[in-house]
Amino acid sequence: MNKSLLKINNKAFSLIEVLLYLSLVVIVIGGVMTFSQEIFDISGKAKIINDVDYESNYALNKLANYIKESKAINSPIFSQADNTISLQDTNNKTIFIKLINNQIKISFDGINYIPLTSNKIIINDLKFTNLGMPNTNGLIKINFIANNKTENTREIYNFVNNYQIYATPRI
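The chain above was modelled as a monomer; its predicted structure follows.
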């Protein structure tokens, strides 16, 4: 009989080799998935920090500009602190700024309030402190605590930060 006909072809993988290669592929895919999840978490944290910082700094700058452009500070009076500020603008109209439902809101008529911050962040402990002396324009310290809103989403990070700025009327 011809030996070339009886020779077995050994070019295929054995079962052990296939299982070994499959386990290596599973380990590599698992590592890639874990790394991807970490990158996703870091990206989510960075977005939360950026959102809270951006909105808080926007609100601080807006508040400081309203104070700088005002003619007088009605309240809080000298050496006092309050969660509401009352300003008199150059047209002798009163502007009110206060915290309502965890949002900083402003009113130009004392009735209708417009939000300066969105509902994406939560503002707590808004305080206006008049550090000025009598017979001066006043120096207002504005500070509050801001954090991201997490009630109806699966947030991976809770960011809380204290923000403050100082402003004085220019007139």
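Residues 128 and 142 are 5 Å apart (CA to CA).
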